[in-house]
Amino acid sequence: MAPDLDDVLLLRAEAEAALRLHREDRRDEALSRAMDLAVTHNSSPLALILSGDLNMIAYCQNRRSDAALAGRQAKFAAACYKMSLDVVPGCVETFAAYGEALTALGMYRTAWDAFTRAAAIAHPADPAAHRLGYGRSSGSTKGERVEMAKAKLRRAIDCYANARCEDAVAEVLGAVEHVGAASAVHGPAKLADRFPSSARAQCLPAYVCLELSRGATPAATAKTLRRALAMLDNAAGSFDRSLMVALFRAKLLACLHDYDAAEVECRRALAVDNPDDPAAHDIPLGSVIGEEYDDRVSCLREQFIDVQKKLVLLAAEDWESMNCEKQGEILSVSIDKLHEHYSKIDQIAESTISDALRFSRRHESWRFWICARSSGHCAGKKFLDTASLLDHLCNKHPDELWENLESFLDPKLCENASQDGCSFDEACSEMQDLWLKFTKLSVFDYREAIMPLARMYQWKELKKCIAEDGSIAAWSVDAIFAEVSHAGEENVSAEHGSLDKNGHESGENQVTNKSDNLKT
């Protein structure tokens, strides 16, 4: 028997109210309501998925500070997703979430089975049908939403691959902290061999190299950092969607004064669509800030922007250490050199410079004026001075002269005035000002188009000169790698009240009770 429409609408309204509480940062209350809905409406995918999603967000928040509570939340989420799949077995998004919950519980074989089943779905269901606000606010189509679900599945599988080695990574990091990086140098390499599909495992040897470089001599630091960079180059080729790998690599390049490559890596990473979840690749563990995927990605993208800004400051310091001859070579740029450079990389820029060269050599000038009437035989016609422009307007467009002027300027009516007073002189002065304004709007100076291209070329040459200068010592690790604050310092309880440090509060018991009540 199909559910009554009024009941469906009422359930959706209650689910939307719970989600609204979550977005208003009333997390405990939202989680409690969502769990109540899942228990009461245990055949509704809408209620079950909402409860599963909010429990997994709470799990991510609590997993490092209260493993027991986080485990119960992941278990409740897995039960919700499984019951939802019993009703809607063709939802790739729910399978991905189910696999993530199972991964959190360490049930890797069952998680892999869920991922395999999701990948085999021939005609996926619209994930928005049973998820609140899923892509519909942006006007996406069903096909686009299904692609979003497949991207979620890919990220879930990546999280699975990294979760399997998380305990081993934690053990290595603990050894680095307690006995030093030199004593733990062999463990990361073995771990990377054991888990080739884990970005975190592949980055671990480079991280240990980074720790080894701290406090070393400048020459030893540069050598160690280059070894770490070689390791990351391999990882970057295999995990091109990993923002953590890209950020680590960009910072290492900055340490070695290769600002151009660092900037390229930042730009590439910022352009990655649907990147891997940064929380699956972070080292140290738990260092990425953000409770939800979008928050974590946003946090990493802000860090890339910060690195780009820092590159300019670092280059400025290197610039000060250069001799005057090198500085002069960078500052002095011929237009022929610019043309040669951009002819290899940018056709539009090369065309602009070619036009400028032809014009300047023919007329010994960089600027020209254009007719306000840009259509017909006047299109593209250039005038070398304002006198020839005015002559053209008067001869070719006498009836349209003022109309053309008014296309640039607001028309202003002046009352008739005698020539005896000062009104006539004021009008003449005002007309002259209007003409000057018109000519400024009509002029084009090639130098204004070329200067930004010249600055970009100079910036590139500066970065190249710095990278090739072997006399410049590598930056210290502390100068580039800022300390990362740890997320997850506050618990999210399952109920209205916050938990104490030991997780002792009625909320955690109610998670257990509700999990027991959630049965098919």
From TrEMBL:
Residue spans of biased composition, Polar residues class: 508-520
Domain DUF629: 319-408
SUPFAM superfamilies attached to this UniProt entry: TPR-like
Source species, domain of life: Eukaryota
Name the record gives this protein: DUF629 domain-containing protein
Signal peptide (residue range): none
Bias type Basic and acidic residues, positions: 497-507
InterPro entries documented for this protein: DUF629, TPR-like_helical_dom_sf
Species for this entry: Oryza meyeriana var. granulata
Region span, Disordered: 491-520
